[in-house]
Amino acid sequence: MVKLASEKPNLIILDIGIGQPDGLEVCREVRKISEVPIIMLTVREDEIDEAMCLAAGANDYLTKPVSKTILGLRVANQLCTKKSNGSEKPTILKASDLTLDLLTRELRVGDKLVPITRTEFDFIHLLMEEPNRVFTRAQVSHAIGISAEFTSDHLLDTHASRLRIKILNAGGPRAISAVRAVGYRLI
Q1: Which tens digits make up the pLDDT trace of 15-61?
Q2: Contact 124/95 with Cβ under 8 angstroms?
Q3: How is domain 92-186 classified at the architecture level of CATH?
Q4: What's the per-residue H, E or C state across 83-125?
C-alpha cells in the first residue's frame, strides 16, 4: 500500500490468484484509500467470483484469455471514466495538530508518532473524516468493525478514553469529545 502512495498509478490490473494476500483482498485494501480504477483479470469464470470482485470495489472483470485489443479498450475506458469523475480520496487527514496517514496507518501529534491499535486507528479515522461532526455510537461501532447490537456504551467509552490519553500523552489536544447519549466528535 505504501507503493500505491508513492507511485500513484492511473490504473491497477489484479489477478485474484496472485498469492497472499489474494487479488480480492488487495482490491479491498486499495479501495479503502484510493479510487484508482481496478480491473480484475483472471482465469476464474464463475459468476460468484465476478460478483465478489465487483462488490470489493473492482471497476471491471475480465477472464483470461483476453485479446490485447479488448484489454486495451477496457483500460482506455476506465482511464476515460476516471478523468470525468474527478479527484482521489486524500491519503493524509489533518485536524488540529493531528495527522493521520491512511497508507501507513500512522497517527502523529505534530512530529511525534502515536502508537495506536487497529481499532483506535479506525476510530480516529472516522472522526478525522469530518471534524466537528457528531458520529453516533452505531456509526463508530460500524467503523471499528463491531456490531452495534453487541457493543456496550462502556466499550466505546473505553476506546475513546484510551485514544484520548494517547493523544494527550504525545502533547496533543483533548481532541475527542463525547456527546452525551449520542456519540463522539473530533474538536
Answers
A1: 988 888 888 889 988 888 888 899 999 888 888 888 888 888 899 99
A2: no
A3: Orthogonal Bundle (1.10)
A4: HHHCCCCCCEEEECCEEEECCCCEEEECCEEECCCHHHHHHHH
